[in-house]
Design a protein that fits this description.
With about 180 residues, this protein is α+β, with helices and mostly antiparallel strands. Helix content is about 25%, strand content about 25%. InterPro entries: DUF2199 (IPR018697).
Length: about 180
């Protein structure tokens, strides 16, 4: 398949060699509501797990979107809330080889605000554990939300370029403010 990955960004006017095929969030959306001086006492976090106030539990996973006219998937790395019981189970199996065969999918709420979509916070998800070393697969509830539709039906490279340009535009606004 002949795919053109380089593009001229309408936001910054630069030629980019290839389309970014993933974006991620450093923390659950709720993290950003905590005053900076309270973060150390209220948040325990690493690259994959986060606990806020010893009562809100989050895991980082991947929403994978099939790419219809190129190599994929396109990936959003997102945070999802889990119940305390499911979070503890996840911790118990964190280093267990074969955990993907042991753990049933777990319900969670999407806890990341994604650009280029209507509000994504609190979309219903199922968290599918994968083998040790891989972030969980996040399956959105099948609804008419555009992110859910894209996960089911896939997207084209043109849509990925639109996402890249929107994120570039948002980053430029933050830089210029």
């Amino acid at each position: 398949m002949n795919e053109k990955k380089s593009y001229i960004c309408r936001c910054c006017g630069e030629i980019h060699d290839e389309l970014p095929m993933s974006y991620g969030s450093d923390a659950p959306v709720y993290f950003y509501y905590i005053p900076e001086e309270e973060l150390e006492s209220r948040v325990e976090m690493n690259d994959d797990l986060c606990v806020i106030d010893d009562e809100h539990f989050f895991i980082k996973g991947c929403i994978e979107i099939p790419v219809l006219d190129g190599e994929g998937p396109f990936i959003w790395e997102v945070w999802v809330s889990l119940s305390e019981a499911n979070f503890e189970t996840t911790i118990d199996f964190w280093e267990t080889v074969g955990r993907e065969n042991e753990l049933e999918p777990m319900f969670g709420w999407l806890s990341t605000s994604l650009p280029c979509y209507p509000d994504t916070v609190n979309l219903k998800t199922m968290v599918h554990t994968r083998e040790v070393g891989y972030k969980p697969f996040i399956e959105l509830e099948p609804t008419d939300h555009p992110l859910s539709v894209e996960q089911r039906d896939g997207i084209k490279l043109k849509r990925i370029q639109e996402i890249a340009e929107e994120i570039c535009n948002q980053n430029n606004k933050v830089t210029n403010d």
